[in-house]
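Progress report, Aim 2. The chain analyzed during this reporting quarter is listed below.
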Amino acid sequence: MIYLEKKVTEKFGINLYSLRDVLLTYPKGVLRQVASFGYTQIESFESKKGIFWGMTNTEFKNLMEELDMNLVSSHIDINKEFEKKVSDAALIGIEYLVCPSEGAIKTIDEYKQFAENLNAKGTICKKNGIRFAYHNHNQSFIAIYGEFPV
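Predicted structure tokens for the chain:
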């Protein structure tokens, strides 16, 4: 039998996308329940209510502080109001913004253009003190005419 002498982690987080079906209905209530389960960190995503679930960035930050939680990162649509999202995120201390998908890319050249776009977005994030990430999916590992896009 194995005994753990230390906690595995003191920071326990959840990706809110796993709660997407209930979160849109009553975000504050769902977040309060998530906090009651011991979660201390969250990763948001952009919905029709935005990444702050109908609240301003500071209202959301205040809710997180009230719940003793931290919004570490969020998936965002990088093609709409990107600089505003970066600014709003930076003002409340979000560490990472994440591009969740590249959409339908069919050629290596399109992947190269996408990579250039991601690099440009990363530069904007870096200037604002935020790290930028890309959440790849299985299509990133499928060869296109014998060449892998990654």
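The CA atoms of residues 2 and 8 lie 13 Å apart. The mean pLDDT is 89. These observations will guide the mutagenesis work planned for the next reporting period.
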